[in-house]
Amino acid sequence: MKVDRRSFLSFVIGGAAGTALSPLPWKLMDDSSIWSQMWPWTPVPPDGEVVYEDSTCSLCPGGCGITVRKIDNRAVKIEGKPGHPVNDGGICILGLSGLQMLYGPTRIKAPMKRMGERGAGKWQKISWDEALGMLTEKLTAIREREEAHTVAAIAGSDQGTVPALLARFMAAFGSPNFIRTPSYQDTDELAVGTLFGEAGRTGFDLENADYILSFGSGIADGWGSPVRMIKACSLWKEKRVPVVQVDPRLSNSAAKATRWVPITPGTEADLALGIAAVMIAKNLVGSGAVSGLGGIKNTLLTDYAPEKVSLSTGVSVEAIVEIAKDFARANRPLALCGRGKAQSPESLRETAAVYLLNGLTGNVNQEGGMWAIAPADYIQWPEVARDKAASAGLRQPRFDGAGSGQYANARHLLQRLPDGLNGNGPYPIQVLMVADANPCHSLHDAAAFKAALDKIPFIVSFSSFNDETAAMADLLLPDHVYLERYADVPVAAGLPSQTIGLSKPVVSPQFNTRHLGETLINLAQAVGGSVAESFPWKNYETCLQETLADKWDVLMQKGVWVDDDFATAGSSLQMAALDTPAVEIEGDAGTFPLLLMPYDSIRISSGYIGDTPFMIKTVADTVIKGKDGFVEINPQTAGEMGLSEGDLATLTTPRGEAPVRVHLFEGIKPGVIAMAKGLGHTAYDGFLADKGINVNELIGPVEDPSSGLDAAWGIRAKLAKA
Amino acid sequence: MSTLDEKATEVMDDDSAHAKGANESGASGYIILFFIIGFAASMVLGWVAFPKLLYSQKQQPFSFNHAMHVAEVNNGCESCHFFRDDGSFSGIPKLAQCTGCHDETMGESEAEATFVEQYVWEEREVPWYSYSRQPDCVFFSHAAHVVGAKMDCVTCHGHIGESESSRPYEYNRITGYSRDIWGKNIAGLKKNSWDRMKMDDCAQCHKEAGIVHTSSVQTKRDACFVCHK
Ligand code: SF4
């Protein structure tokens, strides 16, 4: 048989006919179309039972109630909890995208020890036993040498049981060095102490106020409890409450306000005192509202006459007088301060001046007014036990100098750490523990802080995230994130009440992490002696439950405990003197003709918590574009310097230099330039790292002469076309 | 005519000369034979080999006896495959539903031992393969069909409740979907309503119930978005 071409062709034709009559082509066609409509690599979330779990958000000091929607055991959506006293169903962009913190790529998944050079990112996973063993060994040796004071801890807050356990651990161990990261809370506490004579904080009854005068507070940009503020802004619009925003820059808050008062940066205190002077001159002051007013009256009237104030602030005399009259004549006026999100300390002079305005209207400790609120006192633990090593350590001065000498008024002065470590401190630091804080990014002159860490032989980070400070650690003992754990969340943030929220585990821990409270209890028990004695709790949950006592049941049921009938910190405001010095700005105007100010945006998280991938996508491309960060400049100033929109330029300050792009913005004063806070990360993930510039590396700390707090609000700068 | 065309004719002539040289009747016999071989081979490929190649089989984690469980419970299928309070359908039961009875091994079977030792005691959910999972682009509500239209389970799922062991799970290598969706019969023929669960099968039923399913103004039938959200 010879297979020739015809036979072959007929074989093929037969094959084709057979194929056409078989299901093969038709089924293949159908399957490929199905395949191409639903790519198998497209992630599809698994189906399951829908449940809702209530908890409290602690990504910022706001303390909002949240409801987390879950499909089986996977959290899929965070919503604001309706009816919650803080946020009543609202949520901010950070709280909304909190699941990216839980499931995202920035988590530290297990305890780890450093392998390569510090900061090189080489780690080895170890067990919790080994990790705690390592730390216990170091701490015990230090204690035996009676050098307990050479251990320091940096915490993002001192409110609530978790930070309190860390502070307690330090005290029981024998170190005076529990240091809180700087925030407006420092200034507020200082101002309340100075003006009311008692410890406490302020609270503002914003919802019942009928006139708002904000000195740079980002009322729509994340100040206080951000969701509450956004709701208050809407309420004011509805009730036609006038909102006056004093701001050198047309921030979102200024844009939303009834009236924007552009001001020469750094002269806010002058304006506040000028308004006070007009109120006094025009007899618009509530009688006996402020004690000690007589002593300062003449100085106010002469030194802060509208004409003088107008010269320094750049606000017209008419505007000053008009605002003073409107403010004084309102029934329940409120003046606010704390720039932007109020995440940095402010000058005491400015804060006291603004609180004085509230005092002058007599609108203090009453509905619609400013409240001075005594500190929350629900944490009632027995005194720490002190053995010899602890007593010896606690006799030493604090490393940052807070609480004594020229810094007698301050409680925490983290910005003094680098200087101390570089040879000017009272003793060396052998171990540093960092919890809920990222000072290597969020502190002024962050680069200097990071460099100074070289002087500390052992650094422990409790961070849940791979942040800049965790990157510099030697040992990582990762905490759960807020959605995986119990914690009390006392909410201050300007609330006129004592409010405690409860964070509950919404999902079980995703990785091999451990609750910081638990870690501290374990550590105390391992160190033994009087340290263990001070930590009698079996575990953190028992500690929390015992501490909250009768509040526990309310919190488990409602998720929040509110006391409107709280104790006040003093009843009336006493003004002693007006000679508190102003906070100067660093740099000389000759070399650095411009003034650089950082600004806050609700779309950029700039504290311990970094921006989520979702948030960073919402940042305008006039703030970051690709990897480039922008600096805002008035078109007039830009014109003088030959710069136009989008130009590359070099920004130089006395502290550093950075390449930036230029964004022309009519809403900023000529001569002033502004940059968003919270960018320029080097750690975290590909969504956040290497985007924009960290403005904190360009600004150095400037101490408020009256407190020692780092109240830098900007720095002198120059810009040159690249 | 150009030279080129002439050459072409030459070649053709040459070719036909060749053909003439061969045995004419034998050649046509071969041609038919080869046609039949080609035809038969492709039929075998398309009807027998292709389905084997296209579908892959997996065994369920262990065998499940529906018949025995149905006899034990009071409420038929709904005893285990129930509707949740929010109206959503629970589908394949979770471990928690089984552990009420199965916290210890019951009986002697191998499947029972596997279940209790590897899943119940380990607190692991059983990774069952679902025979009837619709493609991801389909929105299917059990409530609308079972509660709303009062359909019974058998209409779509057949007599699975009477099965005494789990048959292998077959899935399409290209699409990844269960064979039960396209139908066991490779020609796409069906005898029973539960033999196939493709769009046409849904559409057929929706067409028959035409009085209530008229969400599309144009076709007076169900609109696309009823099932494809
Ligand atoms: S405002 Fe703060 S507490 Fe509230 S949801 Fe946003 S991040 Fe969370």
Automatic annotation (TrEMBL), chain B:
This is Menaquinone reductase, multiheme cytochrome c subunit. One of its GO terms (molecular function) is metal ion binding. It comes from the Bacteria. The keyword Iron applies. Keywords: Electron transport, Heme, Iron, Membrane, Metal-binding, Transmembrane, Transmembrane helix, Transport. PANTHER family: CYTOCHROME C7-LIKE DOMAIN-CONTAINING PROTEIN, LIPOPROTEIN CYTOCHROME C. InterPro entries: Cyt_c_III_dom (IPR020942), Multihaem_cyt_sf (IPR036280), Multiheme_cyt_c_menaq_reduct (IPR053547). The gene is qrcA. Residues 57-112 form the Class III cytochrome C domain. It comes from Desulfosarcina ovata subsp. ovata. The chain crosses the membrane at residues 30-50.
